[in-house]
Amino acid sequence: MMYETKEAKIFTCEQSRYLAEQIASAYGVKLGNVITSTYSDGEFQPSYEESIRGTRIFIIGSTHPGPENLMEMLLMIDAAKRASARHITAVMPYFGWARQDRKDKPRVPIAAKLVAKMLEAAGATRIITMDLHADQIQGFFEKPVDHLFASTIFLPYLEGLNLDNLTIASPDMGGSKRAYAYSKALKSDVVICYKQRAKANVISHMELIGDVTGKNVVLVDDMVDTAGTLTKAADLMMERGALSVRAICTHPILSGNAYEKLENSKLEELIVTNSIPLKGESKKLRVLSCATLFAEVMHHVHHNESISNKFVM
């Protein structure tokens, strides 16, 4: 007897509901029904209010700090496993704790590996994420990881600006590979910023490798946290003769006084996705939605179709 393949169901963690609603709409289904009960001490319990037995489900939730965002994803996955879902895909537009991907000094954790193992232990059978802080984090998983590139969102926007003398820049040495990929796609020059840190989020010195005189510069990075690196780089480039400086950053963490730094900097605009919710407003912020990208990939995954074109810069 032949059985018709069930359509996938999409659920969301509360902190990503704004994005999950857009993804579900682009996918063509309604968000599944989940109720979260909260105890007086802050402990919470998600509950699926519909059957998911034998179904492929997608759980949408970025895991940016605080820790309750990751905990909610883990509880959602565990509940789905115990409700006999057939496939459980964690859709994590922003994979949090990814900056701790190695031991950079003695006696520190590798948090990205720990998170990967927790997701698998909870019951995730697949991970879909975007612009990991370090590509090698995919190797921390024993389950399939679909690592999407936000360049498929940003490149059309940059091309639409029709900037003359375009130059792509990396705010640090670690982002040079990403910058070169963008420059290849846009047929532009590349410059690199070399920075030294006094401690986390504090830059002691920055130098520019390359010439930006008379150029329209676009800084490329996977995330913007305090905005210290980006704003310092933008100011330095304008001092060195750049015509304009923009930045594209996939994940807008924007913590501390980042919005104040952005407003007071010489950045013309900061272009981000809606992978995590914004904490404030700025006239310099331009938000591009990643909902259609995730909806398309989720549809292809469910129907066992190729998604390789989403991995190309």
Automatic annotation (TrEMBL):
According to UniProt, the reaction catalysed is: D-ribose 5-phosphate + ATP = 5-phospho-alpha-D-ribose 1-diphosphate + AMP + H(+)
Fetch the Gene3D superfamilies from UniProt: 3.40.50.2020
Concerning Pfam families, the annotation shows: Pribosyl_synth, Pribosyltran_N
- Keyword annotations from UniProtKB, A to Z: ATP-binding, Cytoplasm, Kinase, Magnesium, Metal-binding, Nucleotide biosynthesis, Nucleotide-binding, Transferase
What EC number(s) does its UniProt record assign?
2.7.6.1
One of the record's GO cellular component terms: cytoplasm
Q: Which SMART domains match?
A: Pribosyltran_N (SM01400)
- Domain (Ribose-phosphate pyrophosphokinase N-terminal) spans 9-123
Keyword match Electron transport: no
Matching InterPro entries, A to Z? PRib_PP_synth_CS, Pribosyltran_N, PRTase-like, PRTase_dom, Rib-P_diPkinase
List the GO molecular function terms: ATP binding; kinase activity; magnesium ion binding; ribose phosphate diphosphokinase activity
Output the superkingdom of the source species: Bacteria
Q: Which NCBIfam families match?
A: PRK01259.1, ribP_PPkin
* Name of the protein in question: ribose-phosphate diphosphokinase
UniProt lists the gene as prs
